[in-house]
């Protein structure tokens, strides 16, 4: 039903393409996701269907083929916030203020809807062609009244395993989450603050190539 064009980005075992619905001139984005991520996809779909706001990327449908799950959504030509951070490194103050304003506005809506965003890695946020922020990936999010089993656990080798959030989100994860507490509205504010910090300094507040070092810090 769709024609795929250029790859927009790839991360966390999913690839997002520019696409067009056959028989129309409507261009969309389609995320191709490994089937082993089904739990994450179904969680994303159930939450984003209920979140109707201009700062939430519009979701259309999802379907599956023999090897993949496919999520159809609005096309954002600005790419991910992570890509922009990697390209520009440091941001001027006026840009940080505008992006921060949009991030806060979106988070206020998400929280008012009873949802904890939870995973603040900047690939979870898109920008449209006008530079407007779009929250788009709720794979690791949850309803505020739902129980969370914690983020990290330690195995016998002393290495850390994620039980909830993606590994890439660790540098944006609040200390209490690393300590095993569930994500909350307050930990969401921490994650947003880490993104703003990165815009100012081209680094997250706590960073190491070794996962356990970040946890100890």
UniProtKB/TrEMBL annotation:
Tree of life domain: Eukaryota
Any coiled-coil regions, as ranges: none
Transmembrane segments annotated in the record for this chain: none
Residue ranges constituting the Protein kinase domain according to the UniProt record: 2-217
Sample GO molecular function, one term: protein kinase activity
Organism: Hymenolepis diminuta (Rat tapeworm)
Cross-referenced InterPro entries: Kinase-like_dom_sf, Prot_kinase_dom, ULK4
Pfam families: Pkinase
Name of the protein this chain belongs to: Protein kinase domain-containing protein
């Amino acid at each position: 039903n769709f024609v795929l064009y250029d790859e927009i980005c790839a991360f966390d075992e999913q690839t997002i393409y520019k696409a067009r619905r056959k028989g129309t001139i409507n261009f969309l984005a389609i995320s191709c996701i490994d089937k082993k991520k089904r739990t994450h996809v179904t969680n994303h779909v159930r939450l984003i269907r209920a979140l109707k706001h201009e700062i939430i990327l519009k979701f259309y449908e999802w379907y599956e083929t023999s090897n993949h799950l496919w999520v159809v959504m609005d096309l954002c030509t600005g790419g991910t916030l992570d890509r922009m951070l990697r390209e520009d490194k440091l941001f001027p103050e006026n840009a940080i203020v505008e992006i921060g304003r949009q991030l806060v506005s979106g988070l206020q809506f998400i929280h008012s809807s009873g949802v904890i965003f939870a995973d603040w890695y900047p690939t979870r946020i898109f920008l449209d062609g006008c530079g407007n922020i779009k929250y788009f990936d709720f794979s690791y999010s949850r309803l505020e009244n739902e129980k969370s089993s914690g983020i990290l656990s330690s195995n016998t080798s002393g290495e850390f395993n994620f039980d909830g959030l993606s590994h890439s989100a660790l540098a944006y994860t609040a200390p209490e989450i690393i300590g095993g507490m569930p994500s909350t509205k307050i930990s969401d504010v921490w994650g947003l603050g880490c993104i703003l910090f990165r815009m100012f300094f081209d680094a997250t507040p706590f960073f190491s190539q070794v996962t356990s070092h970040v946890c100890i810090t």
